[in-house]
Design goal:
This protein has 257 residues and is of the alpha/beta class. The protein contains eight helices and eight strands. It has a single domain, classed as Alpha/Beta hydrolase fold, catalytic domain (Rossmann fold, 3-Layer(aba) Sandwich), CATH 3.40.50. Helices cover 32% and strands 18% of the residues. It is globular.
């Protein structure tokens, strides 16, 4: 029997609500403990804002895009990744964006581009700038691998070909068109990204996400090599949620940044 919800990540953990509540609790603690600027506008419009966690003697800037299948979640619930990154001397930026169905996917992708345009103009946003995202955030990051502000890309548990999404419950809010799928599927891009990239997925994630990550990594190697290094990893024992704890505890230094 065909799985009716091949992208339903709640099926991979015992209690998704408890996991997300823990993310929110730890994130509130990060806001209490660490100096930051909250809701810095990067463009006009709803949810066009970012949070900046500065770091003395920063060696670079990590820009994180949260997931939620382009229709759920908030940047504020992912600040728990900031303390370990700050210990590694990274300045951290949590990027917010509009959600479906209020906004179409095309608008969301363009909005992320405007955020990167804004960061490129800021003197405080030091280089290298490492763009990273989780789940739908990995998709949005992958759409901007060639942005001139970006020096390296780290992608976790992403969706890189949108075609299968249109056949799931997720499309009720997204309403993906043929043009959306062709234009905004990173796995269909024809030009290689000019920066180092790592594609990561957990061994305990849904088969569809593991498959998407493997296919996209192969595609990137074909498109990018030999101009920029591409690496891929499957993290043993990690699911769609605790991969965030494991990965950002020790951010890999990709060759070239």
């Amino acid at each position: 029997m065909t799985d009716p919800r091949p992208y339903d990540n709640s099926r991979t953990v015992a209690d998704e609500a408890a996991v997300l509540a823990d993310f929110a609790r730890r994130s509130r603690q990060a806001y209490r403990d660490l100096p930051h600027r909250r809701d810095v506008p990067y463009a006009d419009g709803f949810r066009s804002a970012l949070d900046v966690f500065e770091c003395p003697d920063a060696v670079g800037t990590v820009v994180f895009i949260h997931g939620g299948y382009w229709q759920w979640c908030d940047k504020a619930d992912f600040a728990f990744i900031v303390p370990p990154l700050r210990r590694q001397r990274y300045r951290c930026v949590l990027l917010e964006y509009d959600l479906a169905p209020r906004s179409r996917l095309a608008d969301i992708v363009r909005q992320v581009g405007r955020a990167l345009d804004f960061l490129r103009r800021q003197s405080w946003a030091g280089r290298p700038l490492i763009l990273t995202g989780h789940s739908a955030g990995a998709h949005l990051a992958a759409c901007h691998m060639a942005h001139p502000a970006v020096d390296a890309v780290h992608l976790l548990s992403g969706v890189y070909d949108l075609a299968p999404i249109r056949d799931t419950h997720l499309d009720a809010a997204l309403r993906l068109s043929d043009d959306d799928i062709e234009r905004y599927s990173p796995a269909r891009m024809r030009d290689g990204a000019p920066v180092p990239c790592e594609v990561v997925v957990g061994a305990l994630e849904l088969p569809e996400l593991r498959s998407q990550s493997a296919r996209f990594a192969r595609h990137l190697r074909q498109m990018c090599a030999p101009h920029a290094p591409v690496s891929s990893r499957v993290l043993p024992g990690r699911d769609h949620y605790d991969i965030l704890n494991a990965y950002y505890a020790s951010l890999p230094r990709l060759a070239g940044h």
